[in-house]
């Protein structure tokens, strides 16, 4: 009788196990992030009038954006969302931010330094970068992150609100959308985009 009960219980466990397997959700891992390719190289001046290049970010996971200090539209939102990332990863010396101005005529190192102080930037490897206007616009094209002058736009410039995620090896990385397609960049103006990049930064830092 005991043997029959044991066989019956084992059968139930087996059936339940087979039913439950499809229900198990695989944990999202670094390998699930798409490797887009090497990020374009750059060399610019930061808020301390120091030359900074992509080489300064080697061995770090970092987020790159294009912005300008006097932007009256999406930049304030992007700034606040970047501060969310600062709060999340503050103290981790393997994380950094590169904010490149598209208005270098006005955004001198001194102006950028003041802008950082106003925002409350404390992250050691957050550089606000400026340089030659043509060089910067060419760089935005290489990243495929739109930026341009437009007298009809508020502030005289327009640009995407996207964040680029770059891994420790200098490669652009991203997750896939619900259809399995790479999203390429993260929406720096939405809570959803910030939550996604926050999760993916952590994956890359854990490597």
Automatic annotation (TrEMBL):
Domain Thioredoxin: 33-202
SS bonds (residue pairs): 71-75
TM regions (residue ranges): 6-25
Superkingdom field: Bacteria
Annotated signal sequence range: none
GO molecular function: metal ion binding
Name of a matching Pfam family: SCO1-SenC
Residues that bind Cu cation: 71, 75, 159
Membrane recorded as keyword: yes
Similarity annotation: Belongs to the SCO1/2 family.
Protein name: Protein SCO1/2
Organism: Myroides guanonis
């Amino acid at each position: 009788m005991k043997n029959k009960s044991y066989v019956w219980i084992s059968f139930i466990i087996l059936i339940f196990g087979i039913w439950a397997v499809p229900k198990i959700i695989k944990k999202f891992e670094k390998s699930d992030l798409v490797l887009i390719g090497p990020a374009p190289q750059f060399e610019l001046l930061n808020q301390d009038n120091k030359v900074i290049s992509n080489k300064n970010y080697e061995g770090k996971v970092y987020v790159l954006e294009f912005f300008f200090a006097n932007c009256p539209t999406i930049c304030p939102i992007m700034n606040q969302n970047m501060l969310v990332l600062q709060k999340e990863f503050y103290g981790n010396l393997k994380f950094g931010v590169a904010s490149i101005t598209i208005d270098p005529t006005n955004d001198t190192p001194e102006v950028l330094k003041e802008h950082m102080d106003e925002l409350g930037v404390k992250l050691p490897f957050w550089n606000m970068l400026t340089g030659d206007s043509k060089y910067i616009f060419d760089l935005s094209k290489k990243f495929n992150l739109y930026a341009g002058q437009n007298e009809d736009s508020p502030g005289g410039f327009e640009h995407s609100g996207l964040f680029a995620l770059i891994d420790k090896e200098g490669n652009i990385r991203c997750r896939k959308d619900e259809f399995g397609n790479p999203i390429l960049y993260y929406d720096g103006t939405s809570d959803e985009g910030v939550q996604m990049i926050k999760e993916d930064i952590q994956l890359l830092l854990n490597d």
